[in-house]
Amino acid sequence: MKKVSYYYDNHFKIGDVNENLYSSFIEHLGRAVYSGIYEPGHEKADEDGFRTDAMEVIKDLKLGLVRYPGGNFVSNYDWKDGIGPKENRPKRMEFAWSSVETNQFGIDDFCRWAKKAGIEPMIAVNLGTGSVKSAAELVEYCNHPGGTYWSDLRIKNGSKEPYNIKYWCLGNEMEGTWQAGHLSAEDYAKKACEAAKLMKWVDKDIKLVACGSSYEMLPTYMDWDRIVLKELYPYVDYISTHNYNMNTNQGTSNFLASYKQLDDHIKNTERVLDYVKAKNKEEKDIKICLDEWNVWNFQDIKLDSLDDLQGLTTFEVTSAEKWEEAPAILEEKYSLLDALTVGGLAITLINNADRVKIACLAQLINVIAPITTQRNGGVLKQSTYYPFSMVSNYGRGTVLKPSVNGASYKCDFGELPLVEAATVYDKESDEIRVFALNCNQDEDTELDLQFNGFGDRKISKQFVLSGDDLELRNTFESPDNVTVKEKDLSNCDGTKVVLPKLSWNVLIIK
Ligand code: AHR
Questions:
Q1: With contact defined as beta carbons under 8 Å apart, do 391 and 351 qualify?
Q2: Ligand 1 lined by 14 (C-beta under 6 Å)
Q3: Mean pLDDT of 3-18
Q4: In what residue span(s) does the Alpha-L-arabinofuranosidase C-terminal domain sit (predicted)?
Q5: Which of 42, 229, 231, 329 has its CA 20 to 30 A from that of 52?
Q6: Residues 443, 368 share a domain
Q7: Where is the domain boundary, 378, 394, 410?
Q8: Taking the alpha carbons of 238, 193, 234, 206 in that order, is the dihedral positive or negative?
Q9: Which of 182, 256, 244 lies closest to 216 in space, CA to CA?
């Protein structure tokens, strides 16, 4: 059996996991809002029309933030359409996904939903077709206590207390030609500076997220960040970036190794941040907000790969007809292999916890999501729900920095250890928790964990995600095809453990 050893010393730390590292995202897209979290008339809907069955499953994810309302959607969205009596709200053409937006759900509904779900909202403003004035008015509507036009309107609409929304995104993917109101880096920097200025005049305590670049195939990749940060550095607290991984024909090893691609992408963003910090002689550090990440296999996108995004000026690329209301689009069906890959990506997040302070799994429900609902029906946890739920529930604390030795494998991203792992120490429970992906496709691998300065340690639990059929998926008929299972560790009296071939594991060490 091949072996990999990870050695840890309690003096060598990467950083602390931020409570917002396990966050998610809900866009007005497909059935994320309508019949996802909101379905008046559903037998499990509460008095606000929120689906309590979906909310229970969401609550178990222990999310930090939920980003809303987009995504591409936000770049042509007028938040004022979604407030006030529902019968007066206009139906609008929605350009991002060629749908009709009924506006039956808006900012007040979202804040009410988030409060019930125990999640903090992170709101994106429209810096595509929207004005800087409208962005500042939204901050006023949400955060100002009262006595002004927009804050009094919020009170009139039922919320006496301000929402005090702390996190605000200055637009979405403004680098992309597919974005309504797409701008050059220079023009975006100028507009975002003005928006930041006005928004902070309304509420000086808000935290702002600038749009960074996300897509390596675009010629502006990273130049965008350099240009934008040159202007925006003093105004913002985070730079946003997105990363999707797709299973095309690259082979299992290369797809599974997506964790390394994500790591490279995060490191690229870090390098630009460091460059601008040095060049501008800045004092503060800007953190990374990876506000969209996931496996996205384009099952419902008529493009072959992310490369086709270059120059794209339409989003009529899904199975929907034009101008449908809440069409069932982008409803990815995730396999065991996808779940293993998501588990690997989560390991990368943890290992970059020193710089990545917010990360949103995109998305939360129905659209590219770990949770699926049926209209008038039930809720399903997809395979990817499990690794995400495990890291969110167990992956908090201080991330330890390892020294790694042993077997390796070759893939498109170079020669990598056969087991990719991330480890946190949780002071409160005095537990060390290891998340480990065994990339060995042929056989089990022995993982030898060594800890210095943590006293006597023993692996007390092993949770495993694995199986013979990598294509297996959860369905409403068979919802437990892919889940995490606890393995019997009665024979384990130390910190060596066998990881099944092609498996994602959580090890609890006491
Ligand atoms: O999450 C789906 C889409 O992916 C978002 O709307 C956009 O920001 C990204 O391109």
A1: no
A2: no
A3: 97
A4: 291-503
A5: 329
A6: no
A7: 394
A8: negative
A9: 244
Q: Is the CB of 332 under 6 A from ligand 1?
A: no
Structurally, how many domains does the chain consist of? 2
Distance CA 439, CA 420 (A): 8
Q: Which atom of ligand 1 is nearest to the CA of 309?
A: 10
Nearest CA residue ID for atom 9, ligand 1: 71
Mutate to test the pocket of ligand 1, among 292, 332, 360 (most ligand atoms within 8 A of CB): 292
Domain assignment of residue 88, given as a range:
18-394
Predicted pLDDT of residue 76: 97
**31, 72, 313: which to mutate for ligand 1, most atoms within 8 A of CB?**
72
**Rounded-to-integer distance, Cα 433 and Cα 451, Å:** 12
Q: How far apart are CA 61 and CA 57, in angstroms?
A: 7
Judge if the beta carbon of residue 258 lies within 6 A of ligand 1. no
Taking the CA of residue 70 as reference, the ligand 1 atom at the shortest distance is 6
What are the start-end ranges of the H helices in 147-302? 149-156, 185-202, 223-232, 252-256, 258-279
**Domain-terminating residue out of 336, 371, 394:** 394
Specify whether the CB–CB gap between 124 and 142 falls below 8 A.
no
